[in-house]
Amino acid sequence: MRYAKCIIIPDDAGLHPVDRRIANHPDISRDLLHNVNLLADESIVTIYQFSGDRGALESILEESPMVHKYQLSGVDDAIHAYMHVEADDRLVSLLSMLKKFEFIFDTPMEFTRRGGLRVTVIGDVQSFQKAIPDVPDGIRLKLLKTGSYEPNTDRLFSQLTDRQQEILQTAVDMGYYDVPRAVTHDDIGDELGCTGGTVGGHLRKIESTLLSQIVP
Q1: Phi then psi for 91, rounded to 5 degrees?
Q2: Please, which contacts does 194-199 make with residues 24 or more away whose CB atoms are closer than 8 Å?
Q3: pTM over cut 0.70
Q4: Please, what are the averages of pLDDT over each run of 10 residues along the chain (216 residues)?
Q5: What's the CA gap between 119 and 115, in Å, rounded?
Q6: What would you report as the CA-atom Rg of the chain, rounded to the nearest whole angstrom?
Q7: How many CA atoms lie within 13 A of 158 on its CB side?
Q8: Is 1 exposed, middle or buried (0-12, 13-18, 19+ CB in 10 A)?
C-alpha cells in the first residue's frame, strides 16, 4: 500500500462555486476538509473546519442556491460545517477520477495559505501513474512525497493549521515541554514575532485538539 502526498491547486474558478465564495471572504478561513463524498446523484456532501466570522459563513450558505442543506457546530474559534451541495462539473470530475482508480483520502485534508488543498491519497503505484491524465482541466497536482503508507502521528499533526504547526514545533524545539520547562510563552513569542498571550492561546487550542483525539 502506497501513499502520495500532494497539493490540489485549482485555478481561479476554484473546486466548487460555494467553496470559491467562502474562500474569497476576508473574514472566513478554510482550515481543514474532514470528509468529502460524491453521492449517486452526483451531489456532494462535505465536512469542513472553518475559523472566523460564523455569521458571514451562514449568510453565504443561506444565500447560495447550490447549498441543499447545512449544519454548523463547533467550540472556541473552530466552526465545523456539514454541507450538502449541488453537483459541479469540476469537483465531480475530480472525485469520479479518485473513485475510478480506487483511491482513498487520508483525512483531514489541509488548506494551504495560497488556497490549495494538501492531501494524502492512498492507493497503488500503477494507479497513481494512470490517474495523472484524468485530472480535470483547471486543476493542477503538485506532488510532494510518496512512500509506503503507515498510519502515524502525522495524521494528528495534520489536523493543526499551518500557524499552529509552526508554534507547536517551535515550542517543542525550544524546550517548552521539557521537565523542567526551559522557556516561557514570551520566549516563544519573541522567536515567532508575536506576543506570549498569542502563543498561550494557540497552545491551549493545540492541546485541546490533540488530546481529544488521544483520550478515549
Answers
A1: -70, -35
A2: 199/167, 199/171
A3: no
A4: 86 92 95 92 95 94 96 85 94 90 86 88 81 87 80 67 90 92 94 94 89 66
A5: 13
A6: 19
A7: 19
A8: exposed
